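Assemble and predict.
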Amino acid sequence: DAEITQSPRHKITETGRQVTLACHQTWNHNNMFWYRQDLGHGLRLIHYSYGVQDTNKGEVSDGYSVSRSNTEDLPLTLESAASSQTSVYFCASSESKAAEQYFGPGTRLTVT
Amino acid sequence: SQQGEEDPQALSIQEGENATMNCSYKTSINNLQWYRQNSGRGLVHLILIRSNEREKHSGRLRVTLDTSKKSSSLLITASRAADTASYFCATDDTGNQFYFGTGTSLTVIP
């Protein structure tokens, strides 16, 4: 069965370190998204991609970057982790721009 | 921000009762979607309603959309304990960006 996976599921890192969160989907979807979820804010879009070599900034992109070298993967990199980036991160994919999104299980990141 | 707002923030009902939650948004949309999130899990898509639709049904779910008021409602009929979760609306604006609301936490008491 097709799925979307995230790794690691939990990560503790120190302020200033570079961190990369992995997202892998086997739906063969062109569209992939990264969100962060914080209490009181719901989900906020960080970056998204509509295909290989395409990346776009979302609502809260500062301090984050993504690259899309193939259809299946969209890794999210925190260039220099900050305590404000402690959050739960969700990756999602969709078949088309306005279609339902399929979510991964999430990565809980703690920056100390 | 285009972020939607769900109302109420929290809702507690008895099993068998109906649950209604509302979503308001700020600008024109292509469609509106509702998602469910069980504790500690990712979101699961429930239903999508397009901007030219007014009502849609899926099983025990009924969604309405009023574009003139920029609002939507999700009705869950004959609720079950398994419906306990957080519910989010998401809007796809005309720029194809997705915005999720802050969610309604539903507790169904057996």
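The interface with chain B takes residues 33, 35, 40-45, 48, 58-59, 90, 92, 97-106 of chain A (CB under 8 Å).
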